Amino acid sequence: MKDPSQTYEDGIEPRKYTADSRFTFACHKGMECYTHCCSDLNIILTPYDILRMKNRLELTCDQFLAIYTKPELLSRTRLPVATLKMVDDDKKSCPFVTPEGCTIYEDRPVTCRYYPLGMAAFREQEIQPTGEDFYFMVRESHCLGFEADKEWTVSEWREDQGVAPYDEINKAWVEFMLKKKSFGFQADLSEESRAMFFMVSSNVDRLRRFIFESSFLDKYDVETDVLEQIKTDEVALLKFGFDWLQSALFGADKLNLKDHVLKAYEEKAQEAEAMKAAKPGK
Ligand code: SF4
Ligand code: SF4
Question: For a disulfide at 17, which of 21, 85, 118, 260, Cβ 3.0-4.6 Å?
């Protein structure tokens, strides 16, 4: 039974949970608090959330983003993300909640799947570039689920809620945020780099057009079978997009530039060096 004297700032219990940590919880239709957790939320949508939701709703990425999301800049990393836009009613309800439950339940965002757990990667102050997975517990007064006596480990809860594919597919996105943070927030990305990040994270339609309808393939060496796959497989396209971002912005060895592009870059760098050396007083 929840101790009512136990209150936490913004409902977050000050304790790290790992895969083996235990907690008691149950949530099902018919509970007095059913769907009370589905309003006034700030849900950051992950790349795979957006894929699943826009396909469920049979929308293009542009349509989905325009109707259901609002953009936000994460305060510490200054990275742009899409958040789920609440409805303009008294409760600021989620657009998908009804008295019967979630209308997109099978494709609900990963944050909803994890609840009452939260992913540390989503709490900016918690992001640590250690590679260790950990979670936090959100204990909100309206949620009666903690009064149940069903016990879970974090691993069991993750499996029950089907979060594994989300975590696997979103891995590069989370890594990107960790990498950005580990550079410190002085090392701000340019507007153009942030736009690239937002396109890959939230809009596979645009990413596909960018790859196939710009000079992208004149610059990068991409194998034919990879090209064929990313034409039709959105998850592969998303992963490819993050490989490109990591190569283009952080110098990761994931995508290869074509020889003539490399040569041109080298020549440019040599020219810049020569100009620097020729400057008086240097
Ligand atoms: S997406 Fe579904 S589960 Fe998540 S807040 Fe909205 S109604 Fe609730
Ligand atoms: S038990 Fe908690 S998570 Fe489940 S419906 Fe009630 S408030 Fe929402």
Answer: 21
What DSSP designation does 269 have? H
> What global pTM score does this model have?
0.89
Task: Return the ligand 1 atom nearest residue 111 CA.
Answer: 4
Predicted confidence pLDDT, tens digits, the chain (282 residues):
344 344 555 688 878 899 999 999 999 999 999 999 999 999 999 999 999 999 999 999 999 999 999 999 988 788 999 999 999 999 999 999 999 999 999 999 999 999 999 887 665 444 444 555 789 999 998 999 999 999 999 999 999 999 999 999 999 998 888 777 766 555 678 999 999 999 999 999 999 999 999 999 999 999 999 999 999 999 999 999 999 998 998 888 899 999 998 888 888 888 888 888 887 654
CA nearest ligand 1 atom 8, residue: 38
Closest residue by CA, ligand 1 atom 4 = 112
Distance CA 67, CA 46 (A): 17
**CA 100 – ligand 1 centroid, Å:** 12
Residue with tokens 């620097």: 276
4: tokens are: 């009512």
Dihedral pair phi/psi, residue 228, rounded to 5°: -60, -40
159: which residues sit within 8 A by CB, 6+ positions away? Answer: none
CA-43 nearest atom, ligand 1:
5
The answer to whether the CB of 242 falls within 8 A of the CB of 173 is: yes
Q: Is 177 in the pocket of ligand 1 (CB under 6 A)?
A: no
Ligand 2 pocket test, candidate residues 31, 38, 97, most atoms within 8 A of CB: 31
Q: Are 83 and 42 in contact (CB under 8 A)?
A: yes
CA 115–ligand 2 middle distance (angstroms): 9
